[in-house]
Design a protein that fits this description.
globular, eight-stranded mixed β-sheet, 31% helix, single chain, Aminopeptidase, alpha+beta, 229 residues
């Protein structure tokens, strides 16, 4: 199951706290990144702004097992502020319908068991489907993200290759690149074709205010996404 939340929304606090704690477990404890974790065990940074949308993968117990953050490029982004060296080979427009995706992570409490690996695979696929569908619903036409080869292999398996990429540069001793993805019907169709099952489509009622607000400049009739993309 996917839940899309935004800071300050009534009823989302529990999910947001759990998401920030999940990020601390993955990025600091598991991956050893130099991230900021407060006394409550929550990992946050300056890009956790009120306008950010968070895509959360939940397990059967409604616990967070996956997360992905989406931030508009009209605000400061990780790529521009933390890794500006990539902008020498790729240009990221500042536009309300072009967003940056960051802080992607998926992990199952069942560990490296068959059930745990299946849960990670399902949550990953569902996050990719949900993000693409949500972008199509609210008019986000492109998403930029920085990723290394580990995520690159995942992207290729899901048939959602970027339409342009930056030069490969080292980040934390891993060669990484910035990719630009067109979040359109072609991308959604490719991802869904590679998924092990069909996921329920994201609907307008699932979107937080920061994404719903983008629809004011779109056509009056809501864009419909079928279960098969």
């Amino acid at each position: 199951m996917i839940k899309i939340v935004q800071s300050g929304n009534t009823g989302d606090s529990r999910y947001l706290i759990e998401m920030h704690r999940f990020r601390a477990k993955i990025f600091m404890e598991k991956m050893g990144w130099d991230v900021q974790v407060d006394q409550n065990g929550l990992e946050t940074d300056q890009f956790d702004c009120p306008e950010a949308a968070y895509f959360l993968a939940l397990d059967d117990q409604q616990q967070v097992i996956g997360t992905w953050r989406l931030v508009p490029t009209t605000l400061p982004t990780m790529i521009a502020e933390v890794w500006p060296q990539f902008l020498n080979s790729i240009t990221i427009p500042s536009h309300p319908y072009i967003w940056e995706a960051s802080r992607f992570a998926v992990s199952s409490p069942k560990g490296a068991t068959r059930e745990g690996l299946a849960e990670v695979n399902r949550a990953t696929q569902e996050l990719f489907v949900a993000l693409t569908e949500a972008c199509m619903l609210c008019g986000i036409s492109e998403v930029y993200t920085l990723y290394d080869e580990r995520i690159g292999r995942l992207i290729r398996r899901l048939a959602c290759d970027p339409y342009k990429v930056s030069a490969d540069l080292p980040v934390d001793e891993n060669l990484s690149r910035v990719g630009a993805f067109r979040t359109d019907a072609q991308m959604l169709q490719g991802i869904r074709a590679k998924c092990s099952e069909q996921f329920p489509a994201i609907q307008l009622k699932d979107l937080p205010p920061c994404l719903l607000a983008l629809r004011k400049d779109l056509m009056p009739e809501p864009f419909a996404i079928s279960a098969r993309g």
